[in-house]
Amino acid sequence: MASRHPHYQVLVVGGGLGGLRAAVEAHAAGRSTAVLSKVYPVRSHSGAAQGGINAALGNHPQGHDDSWERHAFDTIKGSDYLADQPRAEILARDAPERVLEMEHWGVYFSRFPDGRIAQRPFGGAGFPRTCYAADRTGHHLLHTLWEQCLKRDIPFYNEWLMTRLVTDDDRVCGVVALHIPSGELRPFSADAVIVAGGGHGRIYAKSTNAYINTGSATAAAYAAGAPLEDMEFVQFHPTTLYGTNILISEGVRGEGGYLLNVEGERFMERYAPQVMELAPRDIVARAIQTEIDAGRGFSDREGNGYVHLDVRHLGADLITTRLPGIRQIALDFAGVDPIDAPIPVQPGQHYSMGGLACDENGATPLTGLFAVGECSCISVHGANRLGGNSLLETLVFGQRAGERAAALVGDGGSARREVALAQALREETGRLEALAARRSGARQAAIRRRLHVLMTEKVGIFREAQPLSEAVAEIAELKAHYRHVMLDHRGSSFNYDLVDTLELGGMLELAEATALTALQRTECRGSHWRVDHPGRNDDAWLKHSVATYAPDGAPHVTYADVIITRYPPMARSY
Amino acid sequence: MNARYTFNVSRFDPTTGDPPRYQAYAVDVPQGMTVLEALLRIQAEQDGSLAFRYACRGAVCGSCAMVIEGQVRLACRTQVRSLEGNRITVDPLPHLPRIKDLVVDMDPFFETLRAIQPWLQPGHSEPEREHQVDPADWSEAEPYTNCILCASCHGVCPVVESDPAYLGPAALAKHYRFLADVRDVADAARVALVNDEHGVWGCDMVWNCTRVCPRGVTPTQGIGKTRARIRRAERAQRA
Question: Which of A63, A244, B62, B185 is spaced 20 to 30 A from A203 at the CA atom?
Answer without folding.
Answer: B62
